[in-house]
Amino acid sequence: MPRRKAADRTGPVKTRSRNGCKECRTSRVRCDTKKPVCTRCYEKGLRCTTNLVLKWESEFASRGVAFGRAGVWNKTRTDDSSSSSLPPTPTSLTEGAQQWCPVPPIHSWGFVNSGVVAFENPSEVDVTSNELHAMVPSISNPAASQFQLRSLADLGGIAAVLHPTPRAGPALFPDVTRMGHGELMDYYLEQICPRTTASSSVSSPFASVILPIGLSASATLFKAIQALGACHRSRTEPSYAALGLRLKSETLRDLRHRLSSEGSSMCCNDPEVLVIMMLLCLYEIVDKCDRHWTIHLKGAKDLIRLRREQTAALSSSRQPDSATAFAEHFFAFQDVMGRTACAKEVLFGSDYWKADDRHIDLWMGCSPELVSVLCAITDMSRARRNLDSEASRASFALRAEALENQLEHLVQEVEEEDDDVLASAAEAKRLAAVLYLHCALYGASPTTPLVSDYVRRILKIVSDLLDRKSLASITWPVFVAAVELDPSRDEIWTDGDGSPVSGRSTVLRALAAMTESTIANIARTRAVIVQLWQTRDQDLLKAPQTECNDWEWYVVPISDAMSLA
């Protein structure tokens, strides 16, 4: 029976499927696209496969044929159609009319793509996927060459025993030589200590304060130092991870034995115990920065409280030794800075800080007065939603205004007049404190003009420190500015050559560089920031939340147990 002509057919014209299998397409027959095997291949016993074929428009144009559906030919065209089977030549293909878009440089720190998990579990922070982007391969630190132990000259020339490629521990500490792994002690001195302060002219208190008590300390203190060194070094040399874990376990065992045998009332007056707990706390921060570091924080608080109660009972005005005072400030500062993000109750209150002390602390990178204000802001942010009367709201407003005025006029003093790096880090923290106050107490958001201005000023300082390769002590300012970036206005200023500067790009570059300049857990910080950016991007078309302010809605739920000191 002869085939009917196209004009005699009724119903829609059956065309080939775009998703047909390879065998059907080769035989030019219609494929029913059944999976995993189409009907024709099943009946004929053929291998049913589907291949993805990439076609390039430039190749079709060079051959003079239409590209895909770009042609005007069709099965139902009339004979008097004047259309050609070839499409008109696009303007972009004519000679001399091509326009190429510039391709921006691609860096490892720039990948913040959302995955399915980001949508399914928006409140869970994925640290693992951000760790590789937060790390850099090199472990060398230019700032280490500036590290000098000038304040320890009276210890018999301890600086003379530090070598660029150490082979044994310093002879000044025989316990290190007997324990072995003396290179970890030198790693602590040459790589960790310089990363704990933004000052380029004064030695870190992690060396100048801790090492003197090592002359009479037990081997447990040196195990804690070596454990911290091994943990930090394992970020680039994984073979040290097991050693660091073993040394940490031995340190914990020794510390527990001492606390149980001597009792808390005696151990609270020994500076070595607090220093060991401080080093263990740092170990957990460098390692994973999860809830484990807060366990040492709470244990230290109990010992410090007990020591203060004993001192008050004896009516003694004796000031604590330098190691004890430093350890107390370490724990108190970690607590205050971390709880600005999660808005939980502060363990170490404002009584740990002198509200009139404007001298910049070397390790904190800011003045005790600024920390005292931050502590007060966090307490007020917790009480803000419980204001139930006009009188309480009026009192709250007056207190907030007083703190804002105090921050605006706060001048932080630097011991070394030429230490402008430390002064810049302190100024970045002051600006971040003003920004934090407006967001946590006044309900400001990234679209608020004042917030945009302070974010730009903070990132300007960060960009300057980034160019100078000195980013210690600015984890908190970077975090505060990053979480308050406006997702719809990422270009925060224009560079000298007229090119726009991206806020998110500046933050990511700073975080990548901070893995070299600090000992903070940048992977955790970066993961929280990226998670918050993704949430903001997803909420651009949603109505704003009215029951919580911006800080409570976006920052608090994903920032538990963060170390931002």
From TrEMBL:
A Pfam family annotated for this UniProt entry: Zn_clus
Compositionally biased tracts (Low complexity): 81-94
Entry annotated with the keyword Transcription regulation: yes
Tagged with keyword Chaperone: no
GO cellular component, one term: nucleus
Gene3D superfamilies referenced in this protein's UniProt entry, alphabetically: Zn(2)-C6 fungal-type DNA-binding domain
GO molecular function: DNA-binding transcription factor activity, RNA polymerase II-specific; transcription cis-regulatory region binding; zinc ion binding
UniProt keyword annotations, A-Z: Coiled coil, DNA-binding, Nucleus, Transcription, Transcription regulation
Compartments where located: Nucleus
Coiled-coil positions: 393-420
Organism superkingdom: Eukaryota
Protein name, as recorded: Zn(2)-C6 fungal-type domain-containing protein
